[in-house]
Amino acid sequence: MVRTRTEEQKEQRKIDYKNRSEEQKQKDAENKKRYMIKYRQTEASYMSDKISSWKHQGLICDDYISLYDYYLNCKNCEECNIELQIGNVKNKRCLDHDHTTGLFRNILCNSCNLKRGFIDRKLN
Predict the structure, then answer these.
(1) Residue 60 gets which letter from DSSP?
(2) Helices and strands in the chain: count of H runs, count of E runs
(3) Which has the closest alpha carbon to 68: 76, 77, 59?
(4) Which of 123, 121, 91 shows the shortest CA–CA distance to 108?
(5) Under 8 Å between Cβ of 51 and 68
(6) Which site in 46, 49, 113, 119 is 20 to 30 Å from 88, CA atoms measured?
(7) Given its phi and psi angles, is residue 86 left (phi above 0), alpha (psi -120 to 50 degrees) or beta?
(8) Cα 21 vs. chain centroid, distance in angstroms?
(9) φ/ψ (deg, to 5) at 85
(10) 4: exposed, middle or buried (C-beta count within 10 Å: 0-12, 13-18, 19+)?
């Protein structure tokens, strides 16, 4: 059986939370910090950061998780076929998208992505 809280219980929890002692607030902050340090080392954190970055850059997609899986599993540049690397290297993996429409185009190496961006700017 699933128990749900009444609105009155929810309000009481909010009040209790606001009235915590300074010691408890400090403990909660330390626990949250420890949790976030562990979380930042997980795949879920990497995926969340990557998808947030794509959204911030203007990528529009119906299914970001499938796109993320495709991004991770793409081993070669879809333009020049060079093996893709992770990290800040010449042939690092990049998700290319149209900056006008926001739609995904390809997974490219950094070099091909820069070239395509230069060509797109020249054409516009």
Answers:
(1) B
(2) 5, 2
(3) 59
(4) 91
(5) yes
(6) 119
(7) beta
(8) 35
(9) -120, 160
(10) exposed
The residue extents of the domains of the chain are: 7-39, 61-123
For 60-106, what is each residue's pLDDT tens digit? 999 999 999 999 999 999 999 999 987 778 889 999 999 889 999 99
Q: What are phi and psi of 103, to 5 degrees?
A: -85, 145
Contact predicate 105/60, CB 8 Å: no
What tens digit of pLDDT does each residue of 78-89 get? Answer: 999 999 987 778
Query: Under a CB-based contact definition with an 8 Å cutoff, are residues 59 and 98 in contact?
Result: no
Is the CATH number 3.40.1800.10 carried by domain 61-123?
yes
Overall pTM surpassing 0.85 (yes/no): no
What DSSP assignment string belongs to 93-116? EEEEE-TTT-BEEEEEEHHHHHHH
* Helices 64-73, 43-56: inter-axial angle, 10-degree rounding: 110
The pairing of strands 104-109 and 93-97 is antiparallel
